[in-house]
Amino acid sequence: MTQSRLDNWDLMPGTLVEIRRKGRHLRTGRVDAVSLDAELLWLANDGAVPRQLFEKAEGYEVWSCDALEDEGPLPVGGQRV
Prior knowledge:
Blueprint: E1 5-6, E2 16-21, E3 24-34, E4 40-43, E5 52-55, E6 60-64
Antiparallel strand pairs: 1-6, 2-3, 2-6, 3-4, 4-5
């Protein structure tokens, strides 16, 4: 699986991404919305995991998950095992 860090957060809703901070995986999910200045990103709720806001200024990173697109729905918690 090829992943790349996305410095431009201007993503389309439904895009599958991984959120990292300080090199740690935090969550995988689908983009729900992005602020107009592309500094804030919301991931959609996924089962029991609620909608969540991430802010660039707080050190969050967004990584592409292109290879996961065809693997079906995410398990509860948004992470693949």
